[in-house]
Structures are given as C-alpha cells and as structure tokens.
Amino acid sequence: MKRITVFCGSSFGTEEIYNEQAVLLGKTLAGQNIELVYGGANVGLMGAVADGVLNNGGKVIGVLPNFLRSKEIAHQGLTELIMVESMHERKTKMNDLCDGVIALPGGFGTLEELFEMLTWAQLGLHKKPIAILNINGFYDSLIAFTEVMVNKGLLKDVNQQMLIVSDNIDDLLNKMNNYKAPTVGKWIEKQEL
C-alpha cells in the first residue's frame, strides 16, 4: 500500500488515547513510507493523524470541500491540499487516491464514510482493504451490530468479513497488506455500470 485514507473525527473525543493513537498511526505510516490521504482539516483527530505523518517526514494529501475552507479549518502544512465542490466529490477523490482505508474514532461523518467504502466494496466497485483501528474498544458495539446483521439475514458473512479490525496499528497494517477481497460480488460488477 502506497497511500491510505484515514477517516476520523474532527474532534478529539473524551479519551486521550484516541489522540495518542492517531499521532502514532501517522508516525507509523510515515515510517513505512505510506502516504496519508484524509479530509484536509487541522482539527481534532484529523489534525492529529496528519501531524503525526508530517512531523515524521511523511507526505499528506488533504481533500477538503470549498465550503469548509471558509471555516478556516484547512491544514496549512500539507504536502498537497485538493479542493473539491462537495462531500461526495471528496469521498470519491479520497477513494481514487488510496490503496486502503482505516477508520479511527469519529461520529456520523466517519461512519458514513466507512460504510460507503464498505458498500462500494460489497458491490465490487473496488477491492481495497477497509479497516477499523478499534482504539480502547470504541467500535465494539458497531462490530457486534454487524454480527446482528449477519444473524438476521441482512448481511452476508463474506461481506461482514471484509471489515478488518484490530486494536494494534502494526497488526492492522499487516492484515490490510494480506487482505484478499471476496470473489463473490453482491449483485453487479463495475463493468456493468
């Protein structure tokens, strides 16, 4: 993997370990010469992971919608900042630029981004590894809920298994590097669109 997109909160949350792990993830990516693609902001966990990469000699590409730039949250120290018109264009660009995705703790936006990438994978639109860094059990309830989806017949087990989970950065990156996408698509293939 040459570039990883990270989705995470624009806030720090209530536990200092979220910030510590965001910075450590950035440092680890830089140390493995993996570029970061993220939402382009200088706030919260978003800013922490970007600073973790930049402060350790790595490269960071931010993708920010124009309407957020006016709120003065754009990170000024990035390798590259790409401005787009909409949130949808932002996600599409981030997907185009990356070889895999990691979600850190976050709110509705983080979940929406994570699930869109999972949905695209389920539909066969990409074969990238999608992962959760489950810091201090933040995503335990969500992971349990995906099991409920499988048990109730609304999600195939093979699709639930696409979601890579670990609470350890090195283990997570190792799992992502060894990921093999399912050969069974949901209904359609990309060339049919």
Keywords:
alpha/beta, 7 strands, 16% strand, 193 residues, seven-stranded parallel beta sheet
List the helices and strands and how they pair.
Elements: E1 3-7, H1 16-31, E2 35-38, H2 44-54, E3 60-65, H3 66-69, E4 80-84, H4 87-97, E5 101-103, H5 108-122, E6 130-133, H6 140-151, H7 157-160, E7 163-166, H8 169-177
Parallel strand pairs: 1-2, 1-5, 2-3, 3-4, 5-6, 6-7
Helix pairs in contact: 1-2
Order of strands across the widest beta sheet?
A: 4-3-2-1-5-6-7
Shape: globular
N-to-C CA distance: 27 Å
Major sheet description? 7 strands, parallel
**Secondary-structure element string:** EHEHEHEHEHEHHEH
Number of strands: 7
Spans of at least 5 consecutive residues with low confidence: none
> What is the structural class?
alpha/beta
Residue fraction in strands: 15-25%
Percent helix, as a range, is 40-55%
Task: Specify the number of helices.
Answer: 8
Radius of gyration: 16 Å
Write a structural description.
By secondary structure, the chain is of the alpha/beta class. About 40% of the residues lie in helices and about 15% in strands. A 7-stranded parallel beta sheet has the order 4-3-2-1-5-6-7, sandwiched between helices. Strand 2 (about 35-40), helix 2 (about 45-55) and strand 3 (about 60-65) form a beta-alpha-beta unit. The longest helix is centred in the N-terminal third of the chain and has 16 residues, at about 15-30. It is globular.
Quick structural summary:
With 193 residues, the protein is an alpha/beta fold. Helices cover 42% and strands 16% of the residues.
